[in-house]
Design a protein that fits this description.
7 helices; mainly beta; 11% helix; 3 domains; 22 strands; single chain
Length: 386
């Protein structure tokens, strides 16, 4: 009698999800809005005039928002660096910063700016009215994918934003040194990768859209350039731009849907300009690997572990394993799609977990780690551990 030993290769991939927010290096969406005094403000008008904009999106019920607002940091910046001639701005201003403060909670009435439970937001220090623009705009939180209250961005004249947080006045102003500056001459700059190319299965390939944003970071009008997608030294797609971009203006270059079979590929500006240092964006892909039928899932939770959940799904989207917040578990009906683990007990704060998970069949599996509240794991905004 012959005996056969069957070895099962279990193939799986991992992905992680959290509430979206604008990542550092993103292009700041433009907006036009009106402050409580009836003055109109357009973001790109300020940027085109050379100002760096500090954008604060707060809510009148938010304690951390109030404490920072009442501390006078923005008044200090406004006085020393705000637009010349504006109320509250020193005659010796550096004239290079604009502050736009938003009440961005759509559920808050305009009257709450002066009559909130925390105080008067237009005059947080009695007898000292705020002089920088105060704006009540219900659309700003959605436009900027608000992950929590408050969020504070520094937006450079190049339209690139960075989350600067509740920094001191000196640190906020020091951040201006990090803003990219247009070089003398012609310079097409790759500023962001905007595609959705991702591994599509277990065959070590990825398919999807490939697109990038190119910015004129030169002092001359940009009239043309060539961009290529390069895999293993071979050009797999090319796009030529012909038009007119003024300094700091942006354009999107779309290569359409591509299939990549390498772990790394590049998007390259191949035409000659005066700064080759910003002509390449490299992208890395992680394809599915092989493992045994039992895998270990490890996690160190943060200070708000009850907001966290984990799940493993198979190639059909069926949940085969689950841990975490019971509020999430309610979305699963009992039956064939019910998680294998008991999800009724939220995870403990600041705890190391190691789960042994048995996956019963060969196939592709996706591990998703999510945050139910929406501010991500270890959100420094609320003092999570490093």
């Amino acid at each position: 009698m012959k005996h056969f030993i069957l070895t099962i290769a279990l193939v799986f991939s991992f992905s992680f999800s959290s509430f979206a927010q604008l990542a550092d290096g993103s292009i700041a969406p433009d907006f036009t809005t009106t402050d409580i005094n009836g003055n109109t403000h357009r973001l790109y008008d300020y940027l085109d005039a050379g100002y760096t904009v500090i954008l604060d999106i707060s809510a009148t019920w938010c304690g951390p928002c109030w404490n920072y607002h009442a501390g006078g940091t923005f008044e200090e910046i406004w006085e020393a660096h705000g637009p010349a001639g504006e109320p509250g701005v020193s005659a010796n201003t550096t004239d290079d910063v604009v502050i736009l403060w938003f009440e961005g909670d759509a559920g808050t009435a305009l009257s709450e700016l002066e009559n909130s439970n925390l105080g008067n937001w237009t005059e947080p220090v009695p007898g000292e009215p705020v002089t920088f623009p105060i704006i009540n705009d219900d659309n700003i939180a959605d436009l900027y994918d608000l992950p929590y209250w408050p969020i504070i961005y520094t937006i450079c004249p190049s339209r690139i934003l960075t989350e600067s947080g509740q920094a001191s006045a000196a640190q906020h102003y020091a951040n201006l040194a990090d803003c990219p500056v247009a070089v003398e001459g012609t310079n097409a700059s790759l500023v962001s990768y905007d595609g959705n190319l991702a591994p599509s299965g277990c065959d070590n390939s990825a398919s999807g859209n490939v697109s990038v944003t190119v910015q004129n970071l030169g002092t001359e009008i940009l009239t043309g350039f060539t961009v290529e997608v390069v895999e293993n030294g071979n050009t797999v797609a090319t796009q030529d731009f012909s038009g007119s971009l003024n300094v700091y203006e942006l354009t999107s270059i779309d290569f359409g849907n591509l299939t990549i079979t390498s772990n790394e590929y590049e998007i390259v500006i191949t035409s000659t300009d005066d700064n080759a240092g910003d002509n390449i964006i490299s992208q890395t892909l992680t394809f599915a690997g092989e493992t045994s039928e039992t895998v270990t899932v490890s996690m160190l939770t943060d200070n708000y572990a009850s907001e966290t959940y984990l799940e493993i799904t198979d190639e059909n989207g069926t949940v085969v394993w689950f841990e975490g917040n019971e509020a999430i578990a309610g979305q699963y009906a009992t039956g064939s799609e019910a998680p294998a683990a008991d999800p009724t007990t939220p995870l403990a704060n600041n705890t190391q977990y190691d789960w042994e998970v048995s996956l019963l069949s060969t196939g592709c599996y996706t591990l998703t780690v999510g945050d139910y509240y929406g501010d991500g794991l270890f959100a420094s905004q609320w003092g999570g551990p490093d």
